[in-house]
Design brief:
The complex is a heterodimer of chains A (288) and B (292).
Chain A lengths: L1 H31 L6 H17 L4 H27 L4 H23 L14 E3 L2 E3 L1 H23 L1 H11 L1 H6 L4 H26 L6 H15 L5 H18 L8 H15 L13
Chain B lengths: L1 H26 L8 H17 L4 H23 L4 H21 L1 H4 L21 H24 L1 H11 L1 H6 L4 H27 L9 H14 L4 H23 L6 H22 L10
The chains are: A mainly alpha (288), B mainly alpha (292).
Chain lengths: 288, 292
Amino acid sequence: MVDLLQHILNGITSGCVLALVALGVTLVFGISRFASVAHGDYVTLGAYFALVANRAGWNLVLSGLVGVMACVFFGYIFFIFVFRPLDRRPKIASVIGSIGVALVVRHAILFIWGTEQHSYQVAIERGIRFMGLMITKNEIIIVITAFILMAFIHLILKKTRIGKEMRALADDQDLARVTAINPLQVITLMWILALSLAGVAGLLLGLKSIITPYMGWDILLSAFAAAILGGIGNPYGAMAGAITIGVSEEVSTMFFPPTYRLAVAFLIMILTLLFRPSGIFGQKVEVK
Amino acid sequence: MASYFVAMASIAFIYCLLALGLNLQWGHTGLINFGHVASFAIGAYTSAILSLQGIPVVFSLLAGTLLAGLAAYPIGVITIRLKEDYLAIVTLGFSEIIRLICLNEMWLTRGPMGLPNVPNLFSSWGPKTNEWLNMIVFLMVTVCVLLLLQRLIRSPFGRGLRAIQEDEYAAAALGKNVVAFKMKSLIIGAAIAGIAGGLYAHYMSYIVPEMFLPVVTFYVWVAVILGGSGSNLGAILGSMILFVFLEGTRFLGDFGFIVDKTRFASLRFVIVGLGLILLVLYRPQGLMGKEK
């Protein structure tokens, strides 16, 4: 029983990181209408820039900011030069463009930092025990940061004008355009949000385990699974979906080898697409 | 030098086959298959495992081809009715799952240690490998597949595919079974990748899960888009150009122009990625494709 609770707790931690990635994926899909294969590699990019700052002796908060800024900077460049010009073309062009971006980002990281594994310099502390459950200080930081960010996204979407415009644009692009919404402004803000989330996710993922050039790519599929489970394009669905996937992956390690965690995410994704393609938390989204 | 050429040409033909398979799915049908490497892996492992059990190579290759094709069926059932992005995500996931199975099911695939001593195509003729004969067989298979595909796209089936690509709803309204057309295209394309996988396994005589990373899929995509989506000859041309680029620049590394080999390898892929971006932006029809 304690064992199960421990797995659920670990699942919530990894689900929190996953939620930030899935939010990014789902925002891009909701507003720009394509599945970005490059999003995982943005996560990796954030982790490595944070690593550089961390190596220079900066604390984790500042390092994380450096990672976020790098993600936003490079991601914005790709938006301006790749995805914005492709916006008028069939959406498949953007998906293929994102393969190119993914290849460039990942291999640039491999070129600069090599294949070695890294980790942030943080004091190693013993985990905290509570009723037989174990959680480390880093994991508490991860959960709190992720929840603050999710609340922040919620406030932007529900309380600010541009957030409302963003939801309007996600719901019906044509209707939004005729109601004096400036799509470029909204799309730009969406990218900044998605890329910042990727940057923070990179830091948290690196804090949780190790930093490798493939870390973001490896989490991308679970992020897609989470976004689909929650109804792709729906931010709240993505958050709930990510926690569900995180917990399922973690609990599955009690019964199957941990290397098959990804298969659990894949299975959930398949079942969702078979029985409820618009997602379990989804309002109606366009699937066909 | 001659043997180097023969070896390179053999691998290049395998890339051509992969590109032809993807071109049928993507170029002629518009299916975004991001898991092409899964069919390649299924073909390779099936043929390798069966031939290691003593089954003649011809039959093991056939089994690999069939299984690769069949494995695409459930993927099609799940995603063909949905928006194209879902097919992309599901196929990508499928290829990772296939690789995980190859990596973890030790009893079947020996996991990360891989399968050594996979018999050569002509192993029944004696232990000595005839590289030239091998390459000629690869060439013949590639040409056969090319000719069959050319015939296929001019058949009523091919015209149906073209109609679906131009206007899916109009094709459906005219009574074409859109799902069945897409499914056939997906399965035939996967089977072609399965042949490529089998040939690859028997040629390399050693396979490991690391040969079947998702990045292989993306190279094939680059080759197809470079050659021109929808053109079979373009798929071959694109594969050849990509292959010559990758091999040629590896040569530069061998001659010591660059100090660190693995880093140099990543630089090549940065260039491949940039090339793909530029193609999509400025020449989406590739070298031989029709402008849409």
